[in-house]
Amino acid sequence: MAGIYLHVPFCKSRCHYCDFFKSTKLEYRVQYLENLSSEIVDRKDFFLEKNTKIETIYFGGGTPSLFSLDQLFHLIKLLYSRYSVSDNAEITIEVNPDDLNREYLEGLKTIGVNRLSIGIQSFRDEDLKMMGRRHNARQSFQVLEQVFDEGFQNVGIDLIYGLPWSTAEDWLENIEIVKDYPLKHISAYHLTIEPGTKFGKEKLAKKLLEIEESESEKLFWQIHDRFKQLGFEHYEISNFCKDGFYSRHNTSYWNEIPYLGLGPGAHSFDGDKRYWNKPDLHQYISKGYQPGYSYEILSAQDRFNEKLMLGLRTGRGICKEEMKVRFNEYFKDVEKQVNMWINREFLKFENGHIRATRKGWFVIDGIIEDLFIV
């Protein structure tokens, strides 16, 4: 099994917090589609196993909903013609509320999209305006009504918390709104102020400061506890789902399942090597351009560190026996530190797996860093 990710690096405007690879030059979309189509064909033999079943297709960005239905259908048909796509493949598209209407949603269902990830970020107009989002709260409510009216079952939303201008009570209103809709997946990300973004420049000028870590932790657990009450499983540090509705595509990343990334800046993994496309839109859309990529062969140490990092960020954790069998030399090197974190009750060993405790999950990135082999 495997997955395919297609990067759509276009946005009408740039949000104040975003440092993802993207462009606001929408006039490039036609040439981009042509070269993306060429890359789909050129890399049809990427996977090491012949006739590898494609279980997930993911349109991410950027803003994939800036592609027309005809453009998206062209790409989906091309993928089906060149790869062995499973009959029950999960096909996800990231969408913005202001791009959607009933006709577009009906068209998405018709062309085979069966999972939506909606960039809500907040249901509060003040938050949306401060973050530079181009939709408003009314549009978010409207699109959620339309999505479920059109019969979509597998629908998730993104939310951002830790906003410096917002109180915990303000933000938690978002969760209370969530319970009014039959959503299956929530991604809740803490605001990170990245250099080079509008927020990053405001931080340098001391016009915007990140919230205190103690406040971040309080919010993290309020979110965890309330979503749990609403029947969501906290299955990865930033992701919550109803039973059986985890993101199959993202989970494949965490489980070392091969995936092909298409488009500038996209990454791939074939089971042995990590590939990445150059994040250069101008080069990618130039006529006659042959999509190129770089790669590295992952060492046993690299694989150990990745398994450790990706596994400990999930609710399931890492299988101790698997780590000992696959990476015995490296696991022996960190086993004493693992036991130290267990004794301090930041990690626990349960049902054969090492996972974070409630005390440890909020600081799991620091624990992972401590356990890395360098």
UniProtKB/TrEMBL annotation:
Keywords attached to this entry: 4Fe-4S, Chaperone, Cytoplasm, Heme, Iron, Iron-sulfur, Metal-binding, S-adenosyl-L-methionine
Residue ranges of every copy of the Radical SAM core domain listed in the record: 1-233
One Pfam entry name: HemN_C
Cofactor: [4Fe-4S] cluster
SUPFAM superfamilies in the cross-refs: Radical SAM enzymes
Gene Ontology cellular-component annotations: cytoplasm
Family: Belongs to the anaerobic coproporphyrinogen-III oxidase family. HemW subfamily.
Protein's name in the database: Heme chaperone HemW
Lineage, top ranks: Bacteria, Pseudomonadati, Bacteroidota, Bacteroidia, Marinilabiliales
